[in-house]
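We include this case.
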Amino acid sequence: MVTKMDGRGNNKNMFSNQTDSVEEALQLGIDAINRGDLELGSDILEWVLEREPQNEIAWLWMACTVDDEAKKRECYIRSGFKR
């Protein structure tokens, strides 16, 4: 389950009824990023990475959601991506 704070400080469930599968969640995160919803994509990928911290694909896509170069580099390192 991915939760997010709404404008009033309340937690909102983002997709717990849609999936409990890491693979399905990963695809939802990728789809969100491809639609340009980087915040939702990042939230979903965080959910995935809490369950599978070594998920290389999730780390690679997480790099697409951050602006900070150091954080982006960390995502690439954790993904196993080599330049």
About this structure: The chain has one domain: 3-79. Helices lie at 22-34, 38-51, 56-62, 69-79. The domain at 3-79 is CATH 1.25.40 (Serine Threonine Protein Phosphatase 5, Tetratricopeptide repeat).
